[in-house]
């Protein structure tokens, strides 16, 4: 692909899988590149691992603050929708749209539910759900992995974490998918779904102020920043962010990993025979390979030079994490799925700095537990249809994965 043919705003580029070729072209020819934008001035696209790490950690020079432009919504075909979704007065501020020190204060308000101790307490429940789901799909034989496992497990886990009752979970997930969408999701549909999530979180917070609970929403209902309760709009924003991030990105990671194992049966057999790999190199390679978050933006506070390109104060940079995770400067044979890769400094959870993903420990645990349970009960995985990718410029994921699961001859406990 030639540089003049690259258009990262093209949903079909991502739906066809040709985005890998486009990102490779940028890394080799223009790693700091001004994206053409017929709707105005495009962002500076960053595709090298080292640049993304630098920008992520230099938060004093590159802002996430929503009043400076926020973290998403930077290409012409998504700008209007993103602008409506994040700047409408009905919506509060997610803490990913804040700079330190405010970001840290909001982050600490919910951190107890995402730390190592919380993950250990949650793991038994996650395994219980995974055991049940895997047993069901093994009985069926042929399933859509996305719908049957990769969607359902994270949905149930984030609902459990936040205290959402079983009867409300499916409807809420429909709204989460709509708010995360671009391209084929109408602007009004996104706004309506934001409103539905906002109304539901308001009801949850009100209930927990009357009857305190130990779930994440109970924590949010009682949280204070600088001695003041978090505003209702900001509580609603954190609810939407946690629900979306917890369900969508983990789903995409599980699906990408299963696609890789279906293409490499030997690797699947190896993790089945050596499950300790799922607590180390295999798990980290699954995360690198999936790289579900396409990009976040930062907004330059001062003039900055990167590889000879001057990014002026007020301009936007867009960090493309899938590209960083296939960067030839950082990874040997980056287009090879290697469950023994070491070192593996992937950026699946961000490039470091204050915005490193707060949900990383829970995401890692869910992916590990699912594949531990799969390898106990499933001896091999075979594709029985073509994977279908999301045709969206803001999502790096597979939305349909038809597979045949062959049961293990003996169930390993």
TrEMBL record:
Superkingdom per UniProt: Bacteria
Record Pfam families: p450
Signal peptide start-end: none
Family: Belongs to the cytochrome P450 family.
PANTHER family: BIOTIN BIOSYNTHESIS CYTOCHROME P450, P450, PUTATIVE (EUROFUNG)-RELATED
Protein name (Swiss-Prot/TrEMBL): Cytochrome P450
Source organism of this protein record: Pseudonocardia ailaonensis
